[in-house]
Design goal:
Blueprint: H1 7-17, H2 22-28, H3 36-45, H4 49-63, H5 68-80, E1 93-101, E2 104-111, H6 114-125, H7 139-150
Antiparallel strand pairs: 1-2
């Protein structure tokens, strides 16, 4: 479906596809109604609006598709990459700060946590399961032991 003829309608659809609320998308598109919710309801019923939003959303999803395999590779990179190989341009650099003291410049690069990545990878792979503990006896017996211990 080509762009809509009305530039305002097209911008409205683009903003909705990007995740904006109807009212915000309406304002960004240049709408000035005092009751934007009523106007956006009318916009949504115009021919072609919903179809254009769906088309734009589909394109956005395809553009930003991130698979389970991509996530596994990212976690693996975090765990396996030595910190010395992470520079300010690395996708594994979580934070970069520069400090200047006189003529000395220090650059600090914080890498994504290897422990957190290992934990998340373990969950994703099904390796991270709660420990099961067997408990036997009765509640009365347990209460009796607890109250007897206090006396």
């Amino acid at each position: 479906m080509p762009q809509l003829k009305s530039p305002r309608d097209e911008i409205f659809c683009q903003q909705i596809a990007l995740g904006k609320t109807d009212s915000d998308a309406y304002r960004i598109a240049g709408g000035k109604a005092k009751q934007p919710n009523r106007r956006t309801t009318e916009l949504r019923t115009k021919p072609g609006i919903e179809e254009r939003i769906a088309e734009l959303r589909a394109g956005t999803q395809a553009e930003f598709e991130f698979t389970r395999k991509d996530l596994l590779a990212f976690y693996r990179d975090i765990i396996m990459t030595p910190p010395a190989l992470v520079d300010e341009t690395s996708r594994l650099a979580q934070e970069v700060s520069t400090t200047t003291a006189g003529e000395s410049v220090t650059k600090k690069i914080k890498m994504v946590s290897k422990i957190d990545a290992a934990r998340e990878l373990s969950k994703l792979m099904g390796w991270y399961e709660a420990e099961k503990v067997e408990v036997s006896g009765t509640i009365g017996g347990l209460l009796g032991r607890l109250t007897g211990a206090r006396q």
